[in-house]
Amino acid sequence: MSAANALLKAIHQRLSGDAGLTELIGPDGIRDRLLARPKLPAIIFGEMETRDLSTVTEAGEEHFLVLEIWSEGEGRKLAQEIAAKVTALLNDADLTLDDAVLVSLLRIGTRSRREQKTRYYLSEIRFRAVTE
After folding, report:
1. Which of 6, 31, 77, 106 has its CA 20 to 30 A from that of 47?
2. Can you tell me whether residue 97 is helix, strand or coil?
3. How crowded is residue 116: how many other Cβ atoms within 10 Å of its Cβ?
4. What is the 3-state secondary structure (H, E, C) of 23-89?
5. How many domains does the chain have?
6. Are 39 and 31 in contact (CB under 8 A)?
7. Integer Cα distance of 130 and 106 in angstroms
8. Residues linked to residue 97 through DSSP beta bridges, in sequence order
9. Angle between helix 76-90 and helix 3-16 axes, rounded to 10 deg
């Protein structure tokens, strides 16, 4: 398993294992894509970019990950509440990864907007992680 996939798996486990978050989004509220007729609110694994961060002696990678929080048209407050909960669960978290070591996982920003086409609210949380 790649470090990127191990990181995604560990994030999914952390988020799905939190009763308070599950209460907000439902038991199937974490997905890898937004469905054509989405059940909202939902947390979607967005884009991820991985870069080599190896040194001469150590292998390493830097990962930039976006988690998307989607809610109904009247739900900016709910999207922001879920984003705050996700940030609290993941920012500087000590996650155990299969076949890799998580050095750091930090939130680098959040952006919130209303999607004009669907009228849904979207909060995007950007994280930077380093693995060895």
Report:
1. 77
2. strand
3. 7
4. HHHCCCCEECCCCCCCCCCEEEEEEEEEEECCCCCCCCEEEEEEEEEEECCCCHHHHHHHHHHHHHH
5. 1
6. no
7. 9
8. 100
9. 120
Overall size of the chain counted in residues = 132
Domain membership of residue 10 (yes or no) is no
Residue whose tokens read 């308070």 = 20
Taking only the tens place, the pLDDT of each residue in 1-53 is 699 999 999 999 999 999 999 999 999 999 999 888 889 999 999 999 999 98
Domain membership flag for residue 59:
yes
What domain range is 97 assigned to?
20-121
**Domain for residue 131, yes or no?**
no
Cα–Cα distance list, 32 to 78, 103, 114 (Å): 20, 24, 20
Nearest-angstrom CA–CA distance, 55 and 107:
24
Task: Please name the residue that has the structure tokens 């978050």.
Answer: 21
Local structure of 117: helix, strand or coil: coil
Please indicate, yes or no, if residue 115 is contained in any of the structural domains: yes
pLDDT in tens, 75-131: 789 999 999 999 999 999 999 999 899 999 999 999 999 988 888 999 999 999 999
